[in-house]
């Protein structure tokens, strides 16, 4: 029971794992950062079933890394963050459309709307505000994470390259040394 409420290795372990997985991708810093940014941007949209496909298409046009796009999608858009994303995009969408919540006080049967899959009934009350509301926070987070990822990956790759060159130099200088290979 304790493991379920408080994991033995902590809650930050998955975040550290994803961070190291992204840093260790063997692509240029731009490709990794573009992939992560595309995945994060797409996670703001209300089209959950096609996030990965949308991220791959955007990543392709940005010459990004597909694995980084998938990791950006999975890390940013997940069941823990979707309620917050939906609330933020809903509110921003209504602000951008300059409309009051015309559904206030009315019950909306989303299950019935989705069951019928009538796109026009879903567009006005649900999808339009959420899609328009996803653009500003999507752009802001994508740009911020592009910059953060680009400089972090570039620094990590530079330090790694320096370490590997130092080991190679030491191995050439003293071939009998016990320096472990990488």
Automatic annotation (TrEMBL):
First and last residue of the signal peptide: none
Keywords assigned: Membrane, Transmembrane, Transmembrane helix
Domain DUF2062: 12-161
Superkingdom, natural source: Bacteria
Transmembrane segments: 48-68, 130-153
InterPro entries, per the entry: DUF2062
Protein name per its UniProtKB record: DUF2062 domain-containing protein
The species this protein was found in: Rhizobium pisi
Species classification: Bacteria, Pseudomonadati, Pseudomonadota, Alphaproteobacteria, Hyphomicrobiales
């Amino acid at each position: 029971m304790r493991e379920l409420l408080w994991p033995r290795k902590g809650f930050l372990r998955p975040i550290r794992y994803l961070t190291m997985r992204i840093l260790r991708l063997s692509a240029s810093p731009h490709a990794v950062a573009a992939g992560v940014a595309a995945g994060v941007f797409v996670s703001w949209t209300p089209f959950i079933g096609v996030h990965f496909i949308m991220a791959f298409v955007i990543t392709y046009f940005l010459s990004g890394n597909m694995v980084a796009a998938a990791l950006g999608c999975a890390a940013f858009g997940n069941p823990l963050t979707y309620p917050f994303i939906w609330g933020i995009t809903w509110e921003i969408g209504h602000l951008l459309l300059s409309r009051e919540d015309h559904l206030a006080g009315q019950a909306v049967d989303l299950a019935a709307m989705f069951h019928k899959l009538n796109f026009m009934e879903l567009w006005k009350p649900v999808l339009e505000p959420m899609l328009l509301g996803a653009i500003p926070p999507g752009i802001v987070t994508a740009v911020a994470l592009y910059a953060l990822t680009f400089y972090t990956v570039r620094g990590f790759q530079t330090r790694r390259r320096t370490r590997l060159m130092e080991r190679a130099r030491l191995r050439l200088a003293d071939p009998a040394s016990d320096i472990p290979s990488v």
